[in-house]
Amino acid sequence: MSAPSTHSIDAPAATRRLPAKTFWGRALRHRSFVLGGSLSLLVLASALLSLVWTPYSPYEIDIASKLRSPSAEHWLGTDAFGRDTVSLLLAGARSTILVGIIAVSIGLTCGVCLGLIASAKRGWTEEIIMRFSDFTFAFPAVLSAIMLAAVVGPGMVTSIIAIGIFQIPTLTRLTRGSANAIWAREFVLAARAAGKGKFRITIEHVLPNILSILIVQVTIQFALAILAEAALSYLGLGTQPPQPSWGRMLNDAQTLLFQSPMLAVYPGAAIAVAVLGLNLLGDGLRDLLDPRLARER
Asked: What is the pLDDT of residues 136-150, one digit of tens each?
């Protein structure tokens, strides 16, 4: 008789060990990643839902229904213009995420390109790029928005450009520092010895090895972009009425703090949830994408 097979005994143990070795297996056991991803998906789902449905039109003014308390008709009540608060929050999420995505994309594209060029070229090219980065870093998003508003007027485009410019120096410095560390590695020296040019080495070896760092940083920059957009809208430099915005909702609610304080709590809580979710997501991605931390888990 043939010896009994041991596959039926070992298979369950192997099956139990397998998920822990995969990215998603580790991710689902990481509390920060799960909580941050859930909160971020909630905000994203709210923005996507507002594209097809809101309880009421966020642009519809009904003075007769102003400052109503939460009810079955208006779940979170109405504002000073009779607009439904839930509808404003959903549409505000769309505006906030749109500004954040475009602004971070501008900062990521320009910052990564400049950082990679500085790291590959070195010398005067690196010095010029880094001094330009220092100069740009001296102009925060609010100051840039004020200058742009004086020239072209306030609006969503103004906030996108201001936040995007503010993102560039941070991502340039991060890319350059991370790329410099990769250029000193043995496999890059071997690629140079094999006759590969700097552009090819940058695309094939440097960029893939710093992607995990950039992904984590993008989540953090996205959270900062949301805060900046809310601040600019609150100051009247960002999204303009009648387009809803969480910062604009805070601005409208500041004169009603004693009469209807919850009008300020709702958009403030929405901003806090979005920023907290992205920060927790970035923290989880940092742990999961770092090979040393991944082995510990």
From this structure: 888 787 888 888 888
The string of pLDDT tens digits covering residues 175-215 is 999 999 999 999 999 999 998 999 999 999 999 999 999 99
User: pLDDT tens across 267-291, in order?
Assistant: 999 999 999 999 999 999 998 887 5
Q: Looking at the predicted structure, is the pLDDT value of residue 11 above 50?
A: no
SS in 3 state form for the chain?
A: CCCCCCHHHHHHHHHHHHHHHCHHHHHCCCHHHHHHHHHHHHHHHHHHHHHHCCCCCCCCCCHHHCCCCCCCCCCCCECCCCCEHHHHHHHHHHHHHHHHHHHHHHHHHHHHHHHHHHHHHCHHHHHHHHHHHHHHHCCCHHHHHHHHHHHHCCCHHHHHHHHHHHHHHHHHHHHHHHHHHHHCCHHHHHHHHCCCCHHHHHHHHHHHHHHHHHHHHHHHHHHHHHHHHHHHHHCCCCCCCCCCCHHHHHHHHHHHCCCCCHHHHHHHHHHHHHHHHHHHHHHHHHHHHCHHHHHHC
What are the structural domains, with CATH classification, of the chain? 26-50+93-296 (1.10.3720.10)
